[in-house]
Amino acid sequence: MFEALNFNFSFYDWLLVFMVTALGTVSAYLKDPQLKAVTATIPIPFGFAYIAVGLPIGAANAISGFMCMLYANIVRILHYKAKIPIVPAIILGLVFFVVAGMFLMPRVPEGEPFFIAVCIFDFAAGVFLFQTQKYKAGVRYKTPLPVYIKAPAIAFVVAGLMFIKKLMGGFCTSFPMMNSIVSYESRHSLGDQCRQLPLFLIAGPFMFLEMHFIETRLGWNHWIVLLCGYALFTVIYWPLNKELKRRNECNYNNKAK
């Protein structure tokens, strides 16, 4: 019964909880809203979720990356436009991700052509959003809570989110565990989080494709596959992040004038 309810955490499950908790705690004490957003887009939680799930990279991973971007925008719209408090907005965003993921999971076509098509879609959507989204200055804010209160609170939330991990299959790797933490910590600057996610949509597909073909063609160890994916992601993500930072600084300076 406990296995069916996903109460049995493996070593890699606990490692994932630890890594997301550590990264979430760091984000809570960063004042720069873009740096907070960066913690939600670097694929450390993705990587450890990939190791924990043990499934090859496929279309579900690419689809869930796009769904994660939708999640962040849903939270932003609910909190800023609909004036829903941040916690219920986050919960509603997570409900969307889970329901959509469980609906799509048995319906995602197998095979590499569809996987490659989804990666192309993600990349195109990321480039379009990166070039067209509007920029508005965020609010510098960090949590006033001491770390011995904040870190256990984040760990409790992350462990709770892990209970649905096995229900999500490949969708779990981009499940917004980290984004939900950052959404709360960035509740005064959710626009920065939404502006950052297109960078993941641009760099992520190349990482997905590389990891998929290395694993399926060469049969390398998952950790080596993950490190190769991280390396390629970093090469693409780093200059994009510098450009986004430049645009933000120009926008802040113009607003100051």
Q: How would you explain this protein's 3D organization?
A:
- The protein has 257 residues and is mainly α.
- The chain has helices at 11-28, 33-41, 44-53, 59-81, 86-104, 112-132, 147-162, 165-168, 177-185, 190-218, 222-256.
- The model is unreliable at 1-6 (pLDDT under 50).
Features:
11 helices; disordered N terminus; mainly alpha; globular; 257 residues
Percent of residues in beta strands: under 5%
Largest sheet: none
Radius of gyration: 18 Å
Helix content: over 70%
Oligomer: single chain
The secondary structure category is mainly alpha
Helical segment count: 11
Q: Helix and strand succession?
A: HHHHHHHHHHH
Give the strand tally: 0
Spans of at least 5 consecutive residues whose pLDDT stays below 50 are 1-6
Mean pLDDT score: 84
Rounded to the nearest angstrom, the distance between the terminal CA atoms is: 62 Å
> What is the overall shape?
globular
